[in-house]
Write a structure and sequence with these properties.
This protein is mainly α. It contains five helices and no strands. The longest helix is centred in the last third of the chain and has 19 residues, at 106-124. The radius of gyration is 20 Å and the shape is flat. It starts with 22 loop residues before the first helix and ends with a helix.
Length: 125
């Protein structure tokens, strides 16, 4: 069989940093999701509701579903998914947030730098 005829597995990694500017609204949405989850046992709902009220990262974990990212993409089947969320210190100028060649994002990083240079030139004009 040729490569095009065999199944290929691709790991898609996505890092997203979100600013939570409405923690009450986020918790409320997560609590609504918990309440509507027909598969969650009743004894798990109380601690889950408490967790989403106390921790925005926990609330996001109840609201974000990886399958939603690929639901309408033709020609693929999700084999496995995992995700997590955590509160982080965020400094957009810190090196850890830069894209680099090791992450396979060198082309994107170069495009972003080029766009920034163009924006800087436009701002000076």
């Amino acid at each position: 069989m040729s490569t095009s005829e065999t199944a290929r597995y691709v790991r898609l990694r996505v890092d997203v940093v979100l600013e939570v500017d409405g923690p009450a609204e986020l918790a409320e949405a997560a609590e609504a999701r918990i309440g509507a989850d027909e598969f969650m046992p009743e004894e798990e709902r109380v601690p889950a509701r408490a967790a989403v009220r106390e921790d925005s990262a926990e609330a996001l974990a109840y609201l974000i579903e990886p399958f939603d990212l690929i639901r309408d993409v033709p020609g693929i089947d999700m084999v496995q998914a995992s995700w997590s969320s955590e509160e982080v210190e965020y400094d957009p100028d810190a090196l850890e947030w830069d894209l680099d060649e090791e992450d396979g994002d060198a082309e994107y990083a170069e495009d972003a730098e080029s766009a920034e240079d163009t924006d800087d030139d436009d701002a000076r004009s």
